[in-house]
Amino acid sequence: MTADALAVIRPQSEAELAEVLRGASAPVAIRGGGTRPVGLIQPGGVLETGGLSGITLYEPGALTLVARAGTPLAEVEAALAAEGQRLPFEPMDHRALLGTTGAPTLGGMVAANASGPRRVVAGACRDSLIGVRFVDGTGNVVKNGGRVMKNVTGYDLVKLMAGSWGTLGVLTEVSFKLLPAPDSAATLVWDGLDAAQAVALMSTALSLPWEVNAASHLPDGRTALRIEGFEASVEYRAEELATALARFGRSVRLSRKDSVTLWQQVRDVTPFASGQGAGDVWRLSVKPSDAPALAASAGGDALFDWGGGLVWLRLAEGTDLRARLGTFRGHATLIRASVEARRNLPSFQPEPAPVAALSLGLRARFDPRGLFNPGLMG
């Protein structure tokens, strides 16, 4: 089996995948569950990873899980929930935002470094990822950066693969450290704050000792904070937090069901879902203190996550956000737009020349024939 232009290939094992890539005669688009089609990929074949599925090791006592890259995320989350555990970083599901179907996979989650509101304290996907296996552009299998081969020595392959969007290799297996699921959670909500007030509230909350692990300001004017842990601790900390932030107004505590719904909305950016109105969607990563002014300059609707360090913006179709904002500290990623807009605007923030040179060097090292997701990241 070889990878040819316009073919759809679904290897059933790592060895078969390596054979396919050794004999590849054309570039391929790497596809897991097909739920995160960000950016434009040049025409070519499609390499699906869904055949590489299944949990290969789960040790609840060691808080460790290993699974093949094509494993549906839902399957992993169900297995963890049965043991009272979870992935720490609350992975985002892009389906509502991008209007896609299918099932998110572990490999796609890692490739996108998909992370949710809990990242403000738990870190991103890459911070919980402790091992990878992948096949590079020459058809060689690489494991955890430990393979004895001069051209990978010194690279932190785990960190490189997370967020590389399939441009360095095809993931076959991933390993994670886990956390216990909390006994209880509380969400406090303030209504009617503007963006500057909301960021001030969130920044203050995150600096307090009450262990807020999610902070968001939604387009409808709600500002929300979440606390998790043992029930008695959550009750005490929620009361102390509400008192400490009383100068921002009176807060309301959500029911457990409403709390889960709200944080799913924040995680998946459902206020900007494909069925909730037209417009391009950008992801802006900046200092929280810079977020209100930049969002105001951008115009459109805004959702602030991670205390304002991440801003989701819905703008008129075809808007060049980077040109509108000019020079700023941070980066802007075009997540949802028409094909025409994505042809005219790079989806990923253009890198400074020294960083771009490093990126090109990495791709040349791991994908010397330019097989993987050509055109996606420059």
Notes on the protein architecture:
The protein is 31% helix and 24% strand. It has 3 domains: 1-181 and 348-378, Uridine Diphospho-n-acetylenolpyruvylglucosamine Reductase, domain 3 (2-Layer Sandwich); 182-268, 2-Layer Sandwich (Alpha-Beta Plaits); 271-347, Alpha-Beta Plaits. It contains 14 helices and 18 strands. A 5-stranded antiparallel β-sheet has the order 4-5-9-7-8. Strands 12-13-11-14 form a 4-stranded antiparallel β-sheet, with helices on both faces.
List the helices and strands and how they pair.
Layout (H helix, E strand, L loop, with lengths): L7 E2 L4 H9 L5 E4 L13 E4 L6 E5 L4 E5 L4 H10 L2 E2 L8 H4 L7 H7 L6 H4 L2 H4 E7 L5 E3 L13 H5 L8 E8 L1 E2 L3 E8 L3 H13 L4 E6 L4 E8 L1 H14 L7 E2 L2 H13 L11 E7 L4 H8 L2 E5 L4 E6 L5 H5 L4 E7 L2 H6 L8 H14 L12
Parallel strand pairs: 1-3, 2-3
Antiparallel strand pairs: 4-5, 5-9, 6-10, 7-8, 7-9, 11-13, 11-14, 12-13, 15-17, 15-18, 16-17
